[in-house]
Structure formats: structure tokens, C-alpha cells
Design brief:
The protein is mostly helical. It is 72% helix and 0% strand.
Length: 43
């Protein structure tokens, strides 16, 4: 999976902010998948 950003997002503060945003989105999706999996297990 490759992500492409505009140049201004690859430097300094913006880069950190973008990376953290992506990390949060990724973790949120992963945790949602885990919750779905656990619900299936219980049912």
C-alpha cells in the first residue's frame, strides 16, 4: 500500500500531523475489525 502526498505535507509539522492522522485512521479501522471479529465469535 503506497500513499502519495503533496510536497507540503511531507515536511516538518504537517508531515507529523499527517502521519498521526493516518495512524489514527488505521488503528480505528483495525480496532473496528477486531470488534466485528469478537462479535462473530460470541454469536
Amino acid at each position: 500500500m503506497e500513499l502519495v502526498f503533496p510536497v507540503e505535507y511531507t515536511t516538518g509539522y504537517n508531515h507529523s500531523f499527517t502521519f498521526l492522522s493516518l495512524l489514527c485512521i488505521y488503528l480505528f479501522k483495525e480496532s473496528s475489525r477486531v470488534c466485528e471479529f469478537q462479535e462473530r465469535d460470541i454469536l
